[in-house]
Design a protein that fits this description.
The protein is an alpha+beta fold. 28% of the residues lie in helices and 29% in strands. It has 2 helices and 5 strands; from the N terminus they run βααββββ.
């Protein structure tokens, strides 16, 4: 019998500005909260709500976790294999 695997995750890529924001986080609790939010969008890239905008570029989405107090702005690649995080707020 073939092994059962969980859902395929999208790869998370940080923009330069998001990487700088990540470098500024020093709290273990904030890193843990951010990690949980990144897992959510990697498993379900459509978890965030679409933000209004024009159709000239990728659809920007916002994922907010009010319990962990995390907000991510991101877009998803055309094949839903890569999630590019543009902004992190913890």
């Amino acid at each position: 019998m073939a092994p059962q695997h969980g859902p395929r995750r999208a790869r998370i890529v940080l923009s330069d500005s998001a990487a700088k924001q990540l470098d500024a986080i020093t709290s273990e609790a904030e890193l843990h909260a951010l990690d949980r939010a990144l897992v959510v969008v990697s498993v379900e890239p459509e978890a965030g709500e679409p933000l209004p905008g024009d159709a000239s570029g990728p659809q920007l989405r916002q994922y907010t976790d009010d319990v962990e107090r995390v907000r991510l702005l991101y877009w998803v690649s055309a094949l839903h294999t890569v999630v590019v995080v543009a902004y992190i707020e913890v």
